Amino acid sequence: MFDEEDKTYYKLREKSVMKWLDGLRVHRDVEVRGGVEITIEYIESLQKKIKYLEDKNLLKNKYLKKMKDKTSR
After folding, report:
1. pLDDT tens digits, residue range 7-55?
2. Among residues 11, 6, 1, which one has the least CA distance to residue 57?
3. Looking at the predicted structure, is the pLDDT value of residue 2 above 80?
4. Quick one: three-class SS letters along 7-51?
5. What is the pTM of this model?
6. For the chain, which residues make up each domain, given as ranges?
7. Contact predicate 38/25, CB 8 Å
8. Residue pair 32/24 in contact by the 8 Å Cβ criterion
């Protein structure tokens, strides 16, 4: 129904941020190191939420397509 979205920019941006955070893991300030771990965990939780919502949307689209096919007969 819809073409797959080009996610090249998002992947490049994510890699850049993760590389920057990895560089901050060795910072001498404890607060900075702790903040890095919290930020990485937060990014991972957001990615899980995005995946969940994408799967839910895909399921909804499949259901709506079936309903459309039934009503068009």
Report:
1. 899 999 999 999 999 999 999 999 999 999 999 999 999 999 999 999 9
2. 1
3. no
4. CHHHHHHHHHHHHHHHHHCCCCCHHHHHHHHHHHHHHHHHHHHHH
5. 0.73
6. 8-71
7. no
8. yes
For 46-68, b where at least 16 C-beta lie within 10 A, e where not — what string? Answer: eeeeeeeeeeeeeeeeeeeeeee
CA 5, 53, 34, 26 torsion-angle sign: negative
Q: Which residues lie below 8 Å from residue 25, measured CB to CB, with a gap of 6+?
A: 33, 36
Q: Token pair 């949307």 is at which residue?
A: 57
